[in-house]
Amino acid sequence: MSFQEEFLWGSASAAYQIEGAANLDGKGDSIWDVYSRVPGNTFKNTTGEVAIDFYHRFEEDVALMKEMGLQAYRFSVSWPRIMADGRTVNRQGVEFYHKVIDTLIANGITPILTIYHWDLPQALQDEYQGWESRDIIDDFTRYCEVLFEEYGDKIPYWVSLNEQNIFTSLGYLQAIHPPKVSDFQRFVNANHIANLANASAVKKFREMGIEAKIGASFAYSPAYAQSAKPEDVIAAEDAQELQDLFWMDVYAKGRYPKIALKRLETLNIHIDFQPGDKELLAAGVCDFMGLNYYQSATFVAAENKQKTAQTGNASQVSVVSEISDIPTDKLFARADNEYLEMTDWNWAVDPNGLRVALRRITSRYELPILISENGLGAFDTLTEEGKVHDDYRIDFLRRHVEAISEAIDDGCEVIGYCTWSCQDLFSWLNGYAKRYGFIYVDRDEESAKELKRYKKDSFYWYQKVIETNGEQL
Ligand code: BG6
Description:
globular; TIM Barrel; 15 helices
């Protein structure tokens, strides 16, 4: 078994998905507060207004984390809680995160801070269209500077942007996240600006001499070719260029991958490079790769496209994108992988895919990797005795931990493992039906009930894993 002594056994969350207290103590609206209030945008019109009320219950939650033996907790800061208008510091917001961080530390849990997990201040969306304007680069950098000043000596690992590939593609291409746009060129533009903002934050971090590590978290579904037909292999390579390396190269090398740029050109899509952009990207290279892994992705050449590909969420329990005909459809298409089972939400279950992801990152970048998310979204049942028998989750996590161990033996440097999630929480497009936690939170779409916490069977399983440093799975 291969987990080093300092390996961090952790778990993760995001502000909008847990905090609630949407307008308390000087917090402003985020784009998600506004978006989820519009009927039809989320599953059963659920919002994070109350979420699991972490804002008032963090002490109880941290006590449970301690009982589980958790060594690291990844959480995000809500930008509009720190700055309601995106710029003016709100001391009450700042103090809230001091309290959370101090409570974690006092309980022996390493805090991992995510700077941006999708809840942009609505004020900046209204003022200049958020990620579509270069004005955001300075505002984001200033926000980061405040976080570095306040929490710089308490946080050893910083995650800058969470899943930039997801918030840009779901927001600007698939039109199922705010601002609900579907336009490939606008997606590429917003993404380029997000890259610049990310690089500027990393640059600021270095300039301030923060003694910690910083990286972005990337939602990586490693690409497989469905068959050995050469055209399917090329399609999977194109998918890898445009869906993976297009982000990871920027974080790790400070530049876009050459082939991806050429492929975009053939689709008549261009990146709006301005003087100084290349230098800024080069100055924003990360210390580690944050890896959010849920599933692999299988591809065929566009001409081999099947009608049956089971991708995306199960429509009866989520909001799904209905956008078709995007430019990259000419290059590759998602396909089924007959060797993999699917979750209730049609996500492919593929522990080996995690090993592949870790190995590909290591081969191309030789960076340490923090697994910043991995988990199983499932329906859970609370029994009358207050138990949740989630053996399916235990099985899923066990197989993924084994895959990490194999990848470490293959030569990958893995800093730690944050499961998604610790407590059940609000799922952006699946309400409270899709659960990920070790801790069951008793609420549903209709009612927040009393938000009582229950330990699932997986809670005790993870406790053992941590206690034995991965020896007992
Ligand atoms: C990641 C996000 O994409 O996946 C999380 O960083 C999210 O915020 C998680 O909740 C699971 O996605 P979903 O749609 O199943 O809730």
